[in-house]
C-alpha cells in the first residue's frame, strides 16, 4: 500500500502547485549530430509520441544564426521538460549550447520545469570540466565567441552535470533507458499539469474523497450517479492526480458507446493491453485477450485502469478476467449510472457525487455564461434563476450557461421561460440515452413519476402500477439503481428537475399541437381547454384537474372520450351527470374539496381511493354502499376505518 499512501499524503502539496500554462509542446529534445539524431534521439522521440506526449524534435534544424530562432524559443519556454542528449560532438556547434543555456534560465525563472540530462557515450566529468574529445570541441568553439557567452555555456553544462540523469555507453540497453526517461517525464507532467478542462469548479473535494477510497483495502472505486453529474470529469481528474504513481495506466472513455456501436470485447481488450504495454496489440477473441492480460499485463507491477461509462453490456469476467491476478497495489476506477454493476467488482466501494450547491453552481454557470467567476452587475438575479432551473446538475449548468453566452437580456428571459418547461437540447440528448435503455415497464413508471408523482408516497402509485402489471417493486428498484429517482426518508418519490423536464418533454412529443391526444396531461390550462371543447382520447391515461375559477361543475359527458383513463384527480370541483359507462378503466380516484362520488361512477376496478377536505358524508355520497363491494381496493382514506357500514 506504500504507493497509495504516498499519493494520498502528497495530495495537499500537489494540488497547491500552479501548473505551467499549456504550450504547443511538453518536452523539448536538445542534441547535436546525425549519430544521435538517427539513433537515440529518434527512438526516444518515437516512444514519447506513442504515448501522446507532445515533443519538440528539431527536424528542420532551425538554429542557424547567432540568436535562437523564435520558434525554438517558444518551444523551449512552453515546454515543461527538457531532455538534453549530450554527446562528444555536442559542443562542436553553438546551437545546442545556446538552447541549453536558455533551458537553465527558464528553470531558474519559473518553477515547474525539469531537466533530464542524458550523457550519450561521453563521461559526465568530461562534460562538466570540458575535457577529452568534448573539451577539444568546446575550446575550438570558444575561440569564436565572447567571454560572457562562454561563461553562460560553462555554467549551463555544470548545472546539468549536477542533476540526476542517465549515462549511455556502448553496452547500455537503450530501450531500458528510454523507458526510464519516459516514466520520469510522465510522472512530472502528471504532477504539474491536469488534463481536465479549466472550466471545472469544485472538483478538488471529489478528488480527495476518491483518493481516500483508493487508499483503503479496496481494489475498485465505482463513481456512480445520474447522467451529467460529472462522473467522467471526476475520474479524469483523479487519473491525472494519481497516475504518475503507478507503473502503467489506461483510461478507456465511454465504454458503453464502444460496445453499443459495433465494438466488441476484444476491441476493448486490445485498447487496454496496448496502453499498458506501450505498443499496438490486437487480440482475436475474448479468451485470447483474457490469457494475454493474465500473462503479460498482470505481470506489470502497479496498474491503474479507468473504465468510463460502463453499463450492463460490459462483462468483467470476459474482459479483464479475475482481478485477483493483478498486483495488490493495482487499482480500478469505473464510472456508471447503474449501481447494480458495481456488485460484479470484488473489493469495490462506491462514490456518489452530490449535486452542486448554489455557490459552486453559480460559479460554474458564470464561467460558461460570462467567462468569469461571478455574474456582472445587473445579471445576478437572472443567473440565480438559471442556476435554480439546472438544480445543481453540472451538465445542465454548463449547457445552459453556454446557450446564453454573449446574449442580451431579452434572450435570457425568453430562454429562462423555455428552460422551465423544456430541457436544453444537449442535456436532453445525454439523459435520453440512458432513458432509452430502460424496459417498457420502467419507462412507463418513469413517465408517470415525471408527470405526476414526485413527492408522492411510494406505496400509492405502486398499487396502480401493480394493477397494470408494471412490476413496480422491480421497476422502482431499477430506476433507483440507475439514479433516475430516489426515495427519501419519508418514503416519497424524488426526481431531479432535469429528469422531470425530460419525461414531460417525451410525453409532449407524442403530439406537439394537441395536448389532449397525449398519454398524460399535467397542465391545468390544457385540461380546462380539453374539457371545455369536449375533446380527449382513449390514449389519455392520467388526468389532473386542479382548482379553477372557470369550471366548478364537471359534467360527465365531458369525460366520455377518456375511456383509457387510469388516474383522475379533481380538486375543488363537482362531478355531475350520468357517469354510467364512462371511465371504465379508472384505477385511482383522488377527490379534494367538496366532491361527492357520483352514484353511477364505475368503481369496480378501483385500487386507490383518496378523499380530502370535506365531511365524510359529503365525500361518500350515494356511492357509499357500493364501496363495501370493492374487493380490488388497496388503499382507502383513514376515515373509512371509523365508518360503520
Number of domains: 5
For the record, what is the CATH homologous superfamily label of the largest domain? Answer: Toll/interleukin-1 receptor homology (TIR) domain
The overall pLDDT, averaged over residues, is 84
Helicity, as a percent range: 40-55%
Major sheet characteristics: 6 strands, parallel
List unreliable stretches of 5+ residues: 1-22, 194-199, 621-630, 641-645
Secondary structure tally, helices: 27
* CATH level-two architecture of the largest domain: 3-Layer(aba) Sandwich
Question: Beta fraction of the residues?
Answer: 5-15%
The radius of gyration over CA amounts to 34 Å
> What characteristic shape results from the CA principal axes?
elongated
Which structural class matches the secondary elements?
Answer: alpha/beta
**Overall number of strands:** 20
CATH class of the largest domain: Alpha Beta
How far apart, in Å, are the first and last alpha carbons?
72 Å
> The CATH topology of the largest domain is what?
Rossmann fold
Organism: Linum tenue
Domain TIR: 23-161
GO biological process, one term: signal transduction
GO molecular function: ADP binding
Amino acid at each position: 500500500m506504500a504507493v497509495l499512501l504516498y499519493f494520498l499524503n502528497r495530495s495537499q502539496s500537489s494540488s497547491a502547485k500552479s501548473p505551467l500554462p499549456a504550450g504547443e509542446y511538453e518536452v523539448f529534445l536538445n542534441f547535436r549530430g546525425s549519430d544521435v539524431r538517427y539513433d537515440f534521439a529518434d527512438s526516444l522521440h518515437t516512444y514519447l509520441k506513442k504515448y501522446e506526449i507532445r515533443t519538440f524534435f528539431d527536424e528542420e534544424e532551425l538554429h542557424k544564426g547567432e540568436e535562437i530562432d523564435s520558434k525554438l524559443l517558444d518551444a523551449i519556454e512552453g515546454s515543461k521538460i527538457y531532455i538534453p542528449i549530450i554527446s562528444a560532438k555536442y559542443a562542436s556547434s553553438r546551437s545546442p549550447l545556446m538552447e541549453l543555456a536558455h533551458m537553465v534560465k527558464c528553470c531558474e525563472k519559473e518553477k515547474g520545469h525539469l531537466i533530464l540530462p542524458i550523457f550519450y557515450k561521453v563521461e559526465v566529468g568530461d562534460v562538466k570540466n570540458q575535457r577529452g574529445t568534448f573539451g577539444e570541441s568546446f575550446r575550438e568553439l570558444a575561440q569564436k565567441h565572447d567571454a560572457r557567452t562562454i561563461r553562460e555555456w560553462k555554467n549551463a553544462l555544470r548545472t546539468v552535470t549536477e542533476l540526476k540523469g542517465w549515462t549511455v555507453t556502448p553496452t547500455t540497453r537503450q530501450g531500458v533507458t528510454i523507458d526510464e526517461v519516459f516514466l520520469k517525464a510522465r510522472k512530472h507532467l502528471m504532477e504539474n499539469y491536469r488534463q481536465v478542462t479549466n472550466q471545472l469548479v469544485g472538483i478538488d473535494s471529489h478528488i480527495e474523497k476518491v483518493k481516500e477510497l483508493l487508499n483503503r483495502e479496496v481494489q475498485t472505486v465505482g463513481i456512480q450517479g445520474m447522467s451529467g453529474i460529472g462522473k467522467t470529469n471526476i475520474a479524469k481528474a483523479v487519473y491525472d492526480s494519481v497516475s504518475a504513481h503507478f507503473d502503467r495506466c489506461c483510461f478507456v472513455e465511454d465504454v458503453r458507446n464502444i460496445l453499443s456501436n459495433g465494438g466488441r470485447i476484444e476491441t476493448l481488450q486490445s485498447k487496454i493491453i496496448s496502453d499498458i504495454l506501450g505498443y499496438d496489440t490486437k487480440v482475436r477473441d475474448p479468451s485470447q485477450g483474457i490469457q494475454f492480460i493474465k500473462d503479460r499485463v498482470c505481470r506489470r507491477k502497479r496498474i491503474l485502469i479507468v473504465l468510463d461509462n460502463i453499463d450492463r453490456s460490459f462483462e468483467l469476467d470476459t474482459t479483464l478476467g479475475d482481478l485477483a491476478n493483478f498486483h495488490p497495489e493495482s487499482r480500478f476506477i469505473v464510472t456508471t449510472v447503474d449501481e447494480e454493476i458495481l456488485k460484479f467488482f470484488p473489493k469495490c466501494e462506491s462514490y456518489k457525487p452530490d449535486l452542486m450547491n448554489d455557490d459552486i453552481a453559480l460559479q460554474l454557470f458564470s464561467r460558461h455564461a460570462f467567462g468569469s467567476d461571478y455574474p456582472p452587475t445587473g445579471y445576478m438575479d437572472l443567473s440565480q434563476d438559471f442556476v435554480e432551473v439546472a438544480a445543481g446538475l453540472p451538465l445542465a449548468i454548463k449547457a445552459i450557461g453556454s446557450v446564453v453566452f454573449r446574449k442580451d437580456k431579452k434572450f435570457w428571459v425568453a430562454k429562462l421561460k423555455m428552460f422551465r418547461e423544456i430541457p436544453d437540447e444537449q442535456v436532453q440528448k445525454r439523459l435520453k440515452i440512458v432513458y432509452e435503455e430502460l424496459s417498457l415497464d420502467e419507462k412507463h413508471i418513469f413517465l408517470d413519476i415525471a408527470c405526476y408523482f414526485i413527492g408522492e408516497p411510494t406505496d400509492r402509485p405502486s398499487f396502480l402500477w401493480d394493477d397494470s402489471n408494471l412490476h413496480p417493486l422491480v421497476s422502482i428498484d431499477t430506476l433507483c439503481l440507475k439514479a433516475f429517482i430516489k426515495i427519501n426518508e419519508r418514503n416519497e418519490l424524488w426526481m431531479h428537475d432535469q429528469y422531470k423536464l425530460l419525461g414531460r418533454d417525451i410525453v409532449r412529443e407524442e403530439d406537439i399541437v394537441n395536448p389532449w391526444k397525449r398519454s398524460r396531461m399535467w397542465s391545468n390550462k390544457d385540461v380546462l381547454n380539453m374539457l371545455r371543447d369536449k375533446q380527449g382520447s382513449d390514449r389519455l391515461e392520467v388526468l389532473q384537474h386542479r382548482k379553477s375559477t372557470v369550471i366548478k361543475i364537471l359534467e360527465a359527458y365531458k369525460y366520455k372520450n377518456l375511456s383509457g383513463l387510469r388516474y383522475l384527480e379533481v380538486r375543488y370541483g363537482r362531478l355531475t351527470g350520468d357517469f354510467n359507462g364512462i371511465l371504465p378503466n379508472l384505477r385511482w380516484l383522488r377527490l379534494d374539496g367538496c366532491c361527492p362520488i357520483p352514484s353511477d361512477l364505475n368503481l369496480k376496478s378501483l385500487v386507490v381511493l383518496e378523499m380530502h377536505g370535506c365531511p365524510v358524508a359529503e365525500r361518500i355520497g350515494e356511492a357509499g354502499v357500493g364501496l363495501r363491494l370493492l374487493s380490488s381496493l388497496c388503499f382507502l382514506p383513514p376515515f373509512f376505518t371509523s365508518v360503520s357500514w
